[in-house]
Design a protein that fits this description.
This protein has about 130 residues and is mainly alpha-helical. It is built from 5 helices and no strands.
Length: about 130
């Protein structure tokens, strides 16, 4: 007999597995949404919001080899958020000199996500 857990139990575990990281990442994303110098485009702010609030917790959960205590997880998330926001804003600024506003946001998003996952995948091998 297969005694697998119910879908509700698995979903609850997935949603609360790294709750500290998720809450801090969403908080950083909301602060960056208000403060980031990305012009008037809502799309660019939405891409930054996704990069910070969705991809940081996902990278931590799926690729990061160490599961930290809540205090260290908060520190890790703040550091990852600052690096990610800086990378996104920097890539946006460079792209904006060559491309229209909306395209620059897409380029910044793509560069940031690729660097995030690249670092998250390479770190376990180096460590």
């Amino acid at each position: 007999m297969n005694e697998s857990r119910s879908l509700t139990d698995r979903l609850a575990d997935d949603l609360t597995a790294n709750l500290t990281v998720s809450i801090v990442a969403v908080g950083i994303a909301l602060i960056a949404l208000l403060l980031a110098p990305l012009g008037e485009s809502v799309g660019n702010r939405f891409l930054l919001l996704c990069t910070l609030g969705i991809f940081i917790p996902y990278a931590y959960d799926e690729y990061w080899p160490v599961e930290y205590s809540p205090v260290y997880a908060v520190i890790w998330t703040i550091a990852a958020g600052l690096v990610t926001a800086g990378l996104f804003i920097g890539a946006f600024g460079v792209s904006l000199q060559l491309l229209p506003d909306d395209v620059a946001g897409i380029v910044a998003f793509s560069v940031t996500v690729c660097v995030q996952y690249g670092v998250a995948m390479i770190f376990p091998r180096v460590r």
